[in-house]
Amino acid sequence: MAELQKGLEGVIAAETKVSSIIDSQLTYAGYDIDDLAQNAEFEEVIFLLWHYRLPNEAELKELKEKLFEYMTLNPRVYNHFKEYATGNVHPMTALRTSVSYIAHFDEHAEDEEESQTLERAIRIQAKIASLVTSYARVREGKEAVKPNKDLNYAGNFLYMLRGELPTDIEVEAFNKALVLHADHELNASTFTARCAVSSLSDMYSGIVAAVGSLKGPLHGGANERVMSMLSEVKSIDEVDAYIDEKIKNKEKIMGFGHRVYKDGDPRAKYLKEMSRKITAETGQSQLFDISVKIADKMKAEKGLIANVDFFSATVYHSMNIEHDLFTPIFAVSRTSGWIAHILEQYRDNRIMRPRAHYIGETDRTYEPIEKR
Ligand code: ACO
């Protein structure tokens, strides 16, 4: 049997045309992330990941219209939220449940025909934004907000969240964040999605599984915890002692390190610049300064570089977004990548079934309960 690679480090588990990380360069279907971050609308990226090419005008228009149409949820979903919004349900937990619930209203949920699969993909991509935003409102006793036809995906997310038209600058920044988080080769949640559907299970099941994986603090859940850390460090003078203590206790510092990138995450520079701008605009530059000092110290002390989650935290915080919505926002964007990988898995499937190296006891004999 092959040797164990803990955490599957270095193991090639799939072929993909969706995205690649080669020598710390991230590309989506051959387009450099720098190019896309500076020029693309999130809807174009969705199309790119699903079709391996950018859409023409008519295709983009059609995708946008369908996304808008499907953003409206069945009223029973809002009522469903009302039932559990009274407790202390984390939005990622609510999202995991509600993605599963919306499958109940999709009459084609089990239909394997290819045209239906793509339609289901658009449906899920549209509804995931409405699930996150409406849960955020319903738990505060507010009414959900219907999407606005004049806004793009990024704009509609902010509009449905707050019930007020976002500014152009906010839409541009949020669009960029969505583009930067859309896909990332075979990360834990994407691998989870591919595993789930490799049994030929349905797309909703793949997304539910992926949401569950993303939720963890070593993956998408890190961004929320970055903000908790920043709120514990009250001033720039406390950074050294705070980080030294964590390092001494062998605690993980959230927002640092990466399995694949060892010389830097190509997405982080955009989020850092966005963080610098938006914290300055909102009078919270101190948060940015503390973040930079933490990043410098982590590099110097541990050789660890800030990943995508580190500066995204201050960007969303400065947009007045609640901290427990940071990971759900990541999920909204990453759904596009999960779906791309699910579609790819369906096209060339073999069930995922690795082996385990057994290290437990052997040669035991059943003992009657009174003898144990
Ligand atoms: N803080 C402190 N030490 C760390 C950190 C960190 N953030 N990251 C790695 N290390 C340490 C490890 O403990 C390990 O130390 P050791 O050799 O003494 O045991 C060493 O650095 C090497 O770690 P890796 O093997 O490179 O880490 P791995 O690939 O297993 O894990 C991960 C990568 C999960 C991202 C890790 O760096 C981590 O836990 N980071 C914090 C959580 C985080 O920010 N997650 C978001 C990742 S990006 C994303 O999902 C979008």
Beta strands, count: 3
Bound molecules: acetyl coenzyme *A
Percent of residues in beta strands: under 5%
Task: List segments where confidence is low: pLDDT < 50 over at least 5 consecutive residues.
Answer: none
Task: Write up this protein.
- A hairpin with a 2-residue loop joins strand 1 and strand 2 (25-28).
- With 372 residues, the protein is an all-alpha fold.
- The protein folds into 2 domains: 16-215 and 325-347, Orthogonal Bundle (Citrate Synthase, domain 1), CATH 1.10.580; 222-318, Orthogonal Bundle (Cytochrome p450-Terp, domain 2), CATH 1.10.230.
- It contains 16 helices and 3 strands.
- The protein has a 3-stranded antiparallel β-sheet with strand order 1-2-3.
- It has helices spanning 33-39, 42-51, 57-70, 75-85, 91-102, 114-138, 153-162, 168-181, 188-197, 203-214, 222-232, 239-248, 268-281, 285-302, 308-318, 326-347; strands at 19-22, 25-28, 31-32.
- It starts with 18 loop residues before the first strand and ends in a 25-residue tail after the last helix.
- The structure holds acetyl coenzyme *A.
- Acetyl coenzyme *A binds next to helix 15.
